[in-house]
Amino acid sequence: MPIVRIELWEGRDNEQKELLIKEVSISVSKALKIPPEQVFVLLYDVPKSHWGIAGIPASKKR
Amino acid sequence: MPIVRIELWEGRDNEQKELLIKEVSISVSKALKIPPEQVFVLLYDVPKSHWGIAGIPASKKR
Amino acid sequence: MPIVRIELWEGRDNEQKELLIKEVSISVSKALKIPPEQVFVLLYDVPKSHWGIAGIPASKKR
Amino acid sequence: MPIVRIELWEGRDNEQKELLIKEVSISVSKALKIPPEQVFVLLYDVPKSHWGIAGIPASKKR
Amino acid sequence: MPIVRIELWEGRDNEQKELLIKEVSISVSKALKIPPEQVFVLLYDVPKSHWGIAGIPASKKR
Amino acid sequence: MPIVRIELWEGRDNEQKELLIKEVSISVSKALKIPPEQVFVLLYDVPKSHWGIAGIPASKKR
């Protein structure tokens, strides 16, 4: 009954998010030997302005 | 000083969220025998397209 | 299909945690008008030494 | 630069967790078309006594 | 390689968030004696209507 | 009323964690111009075996 939470940079389209949900669910199901129905995946879009690396928002990186 | 975080499907109105905050705070307060002032509740609306079950976004389920 | 996460100070016994899970699940179920089977509650025990308020671990407060 | 957090029931051995990290990282990398070096995966073991379903800890379910 | 997540009330401007990312990254880097490149900071704006204290949304407090 | 959550590799001693709580609380307080009493900091020790980078647990990295 695992719960997967993925934080990713804002900007991916729904098609790619759908693929991400699918692929990760299959991986978790296989690795833990559980039916895919038991896998939950929640995606969080985080704006680059809200994601700091080395003290600087990713939106300001070149 | 418990912190409660609730992820729910996007689409509830503010009235229902307010009720949710109220009821959960009372429950936590009673179960842990602490004053309600010490209970924090944070709600996260998650779009159905970002919530996968069995590898498929909830927005695509029938 | 809400997911509830509760962070609380380490030290409660299992009986109290069981009551907490029960009461919160009922509250969420009622407030959102969904069957209790759809409510997940995860508890996290946080040591007081790992929980800072006003810059000081709760374990050091009098 | 996605961050993946997986909550799972306590009790898996390290070998299975290692496989889980590997498979999920590959899936994320492929689905998002990013190098695997940019994928972080954090696992959280949650005791069944701390994981409630339908108001009852998973440790009490038959 | 610490990951810092900060939930704050919605309404701060980007300049202040940028300062927050900077200052927190420096603090973590110094306290843990690691290079700032290894510090990640993610900000979450939470609407006051979604942040309950003592059973009442912060948006309803006077 | 910000809530800060920091995930770090297991193995730091309590003295260093106390310093981390202190420094981060001061930074948040200053950057957001709020009294330190309103800042909460929660630390999570994550074992290196549970923290994957590039598909490999940090415990297996050289």
Tell me what the structure shows.
The structure is a homohexamer of 62-residue chains. Chain A has one domain: Macrophage Migration Inhibitory Factor, CATH 3.30.429. Chain A contains 1 helix and 4 strands; from the N terminus they run E-H-E-E-E. Chain A has one helix at residues 14-32; strands at 3-9, 40-46, 51-53, 56-57. The first copy, chain A, has a two-stranded parallel sheet with strand order 1-2. A two-stranded antiparallel sheet of chain A has the order 3-4. Strand 2 (40-46) of chain B pairs antiparallel with strand 3 (51-53) of chain E, so a sheet runs across the interface.
Question: Topology, pairings included?
Answer:
The structure is a homohexamer of 62-residue chains.
Chain A: E1 3-9, H1 14-32, E2 40-46, E3 51-53, E4 56-57
Parallel strand pairs in A: 1-2
Antiparallel strand pairs in A: 3-4
